[in-house]
Specification:
Shape: globular
Strand content: 5-15%
Low-confidence stretches: none
Order of helices and strands: HEHEHEHEHHEHEHEHEH
Distance between the termini: 67 Å
Bound molecules: zinc ion
Radius of gyration: 22 Å
CATH class of the largest domain: Alpha Beta
Structural class: alpha/beta
CATH superfamily of the largest domain: Nitrogenase molybdenum iron protein domain
Number of helices: 10
Helix content: 40-55%
CATH architecture of the largest domain: 3-Layer(aba) Sandwich
Mean pLDDT: 90
Strand order of the largest sheet: 2-1-3-4
Largest sheet: 4 strands, parallel
Length: 293
């Protein structure tokens, strides 16, 4: 190839890179799981930024100027709702910007978590996660009519992948004797999942990772873990290891590998995207439920 031709080609490549097919939509998602779902649905036309990134606890997150700056550029903001990320909408109001706000859990009847109120962790049930992506697709479609068919098609395709993962959950859990279908986790993030697949979920903490168990709650949990013969206590965040270690010590159980509840892992971890997260959690839970020593 001649030098002149290589030059012309690189110039064409530069021009193509500089002129996007249509104006890019900047979407800001409140936490890593929603950012992943929005990337899947939005495709090429949407650039997704995240406020609470991988490996960061969204409960009680304290936004600062960096989050306010990200929100100020957003044309669309995606939040979970159900009391999980109320600070995002407060920050949007304070910024004076007027992005479209998509509440991913819209229309989902919240599970009530005892005295804790509505349970925000609806994404843990793959069928409800499929409703999240449908809601995100409709929100993006309203903002981007030219791309609407693409957003809807990607959401439907992803819903099929979620359905096949749900089938994996059903098959794996059906193979476990019913008295062993229980897990012990550090905060109560798996209620929707338990409801969907018939798992009993015992949690060290409440619906927020911020609350500490009372002495009575801890004593109740120790009795339950012993009575259920649970051998493995699962932890979701390194910050919660101390309580889980205490529970393990007092019951003779051991700490299992990490579950991902409210955050993805970094790209080189076991849960770099939402589907990988669901698959990782299933294998960790199955091993914990089957453990006998
Ligand atoms: Zn949580």
């Amino acid at each position: 190839m001649s030098k002149a031709r290589i030059c012309a080609l690189s110039l064409a490549a530069l021009l193509l890179a500089a002129i996007p097919a249509r104006a890019e939509i900047v979407a800001v998602a409140s936490f890593s799981i929603l950012a992943d779902l929005t990337r899947v649905v939005g495709g090429e036309a949407v650039r997704v930024e995240v406020l609470v990134g991988p490996e960061t606890d969204a409960h009680g997150f304290q936004p600062g100027p960096a989050e306010a700056r990200k929100l100020a550029q957003a044309r669309v903001v995606i939040v979970n709702g159900l009391g999980f990320d109320p600070w995002v909408e407060r920050l949007v109001k304070a910024s004076g910007a007027k992005p479209r706000v998509i509440v991913a859990s819209a229309g989902i009847a919240p599970r009530q978590g005892g005295h804790h109120g509505a349970d925000p962790h609806a994404w843990q049930d793959p069928a409800l996660a499929a409703r999240y992506v449908a809601t995100i697709a409709e929100g993006l479609a309203a903002l981007d009519p030219a791309g609407a068919a693409g957003h809807r098609a990607r959401a439907e395709d992803y819903a099929k992948r979620l359905e096949s993962l749900a089938a994996e959950y059903r098959a794996a859990i059906a193979a476990i004797p019913s008295e062993r279908r229980r897990i012990v986790t550090s905060h109560d993030a798996f209620g929707y999942l338990g409801q969907a697949f018939g798992l009993r979920v015992l949690a060290l903490k409440g619906l927020s990772s911020e609350s500490e168990p009372s002495a009575q709650a801890m004593a109740r949990l120790i009795r339950a873990v012993r009575a259920e013969g649970v051998r493995v206590v699962l932890v979701e965040s390194p910050a919660e290891t101390r309580l889980a270690e205490r529970l393990a010590r007092e019951t003779g159980a051991r700490l299992g590998p990490r579950l991902y509840a409210d955050t993805l892992s970094r790209p080189d971890g076991p849960a770099p995207d939402f589907l990988a997260m669901l698959r990782h959690n299933l294998s960790v839970m199955v091993a914990a439920m089957n453990a006998v020593d």
